[in-house]
Write a structure and sequence with these properties.
This protein has 235 residues and is an alpha+beta fold. Helices cover 31% and strands 23% of the residues. It has a 6-stranded antiparallel beta sheet with strand order 1-2-3-6-5-4. A hairpin with a 5-residue loop joins strand 5 and strand 6. The longest helix is centred in the N-terminal third of the chain and has 23 residues.
Length: 235
């Protein structure tokens, strides 16, 4: 065997190994009624945890740790460059600023390890933050929620929407095995986005400092499907 042929084989072996390794690492959820019910329960659980918390970032960080999504369960904010959006009149009204006051905007992907858990749009009033906070927002990957923690912000949700319904309409009135056109052996395909929130962050004196629009992503469920014991077969 020539050196060229050996090199080619090694390259192909590396490619196939990488593919196999990626496939093995990918969580496998089967498209069954139980799996869909589990997905719905987990989505609504996280939804309620965020709604009842003062920091979506800290809630996501705890979710990442509890579900072993990364060796180091820390949320980072990766800024999406060239994203710009002028605050609307409604946003300015929510933030209680006039047309002349500065409102900054940034769009970020909140990640834990290799997983994107949320894509967030954030309009904030820099004059209501400290110079150090503004510097951190401009120069680091620290999420907004962590940056403003010293202000002890309070979160008021103004809109919630579930973007994916794992169970088909009327599921409780009829039998179903999976989504239309699938068999129970098929893999459950999650849409890119699962649910979204709009919220305003206030200081303890109820002065608004930011408005956020968060779209929560399917990588929130990037772990193996939970195993629910069958009380009949697993006695």
């Amino acid at each position: 065997m020539t050196l060229r042929h050996l090199t080619a084989r090694l390259v192909l072996f590396g490619i196939f190994s990488a593919i196999a390794g990626g496939a093995a690492a990918a969580p496998l959820w089967m498209d069954t009624p139980v799996a869909r019910l589990e997905a719905l329960t987990l989505i609504q659980t996280l939804n309620v945890e965020i709604l009842s918390s003062t920091s979506a970032t800290l809630t996501l960080e705890r979710w990442c740790r509890d579900h072993a999504l990364a060796d180091t369960p820390v949320i980072l904010a990766h800024r999406i460059e060239n994203a710009a959006e002028v605050p609307s009149a409604a946003v300015r009204q929510d933030l209680q600023v006039n047309a002349q006051e500065t409102v900054r905007y940034r769009r970020v992907e909140l990640t834990c390890g290799d997983h994107v858990l949320s894509v967030a749009d954030n309009w904030y009033v820099p004059a209501r933050l400290t110079p150090q906070m503004n510097r951190l927002l401009e120069t680091t990957q620290t999420p907004f929620g962590k940056v403003v923690q010293p202000l002890r912000p309070q979160r008021q949700t103004i809109a919630v929407q579930l973007l994916w319904a794992p169970l088909p309409e009327g599921w409780e009135r009829s039998e179903f095995t999976s989504s239309p056109g699938k068999t129970p052996a098929d893999r459950l395909e999650l849409p890119p986005a699962l649910f979204e929130h709009r919220a305003i962050l206030y200081t303890p004196k109820h002065q608004p400092i930011a408005e956020v629009h968060e779209v929560y992503q399917r990588d929130l469920l990037a772990f193996p499907e939970p195993h629910v014991p069958d009380p009949v077969t697993e006695r």
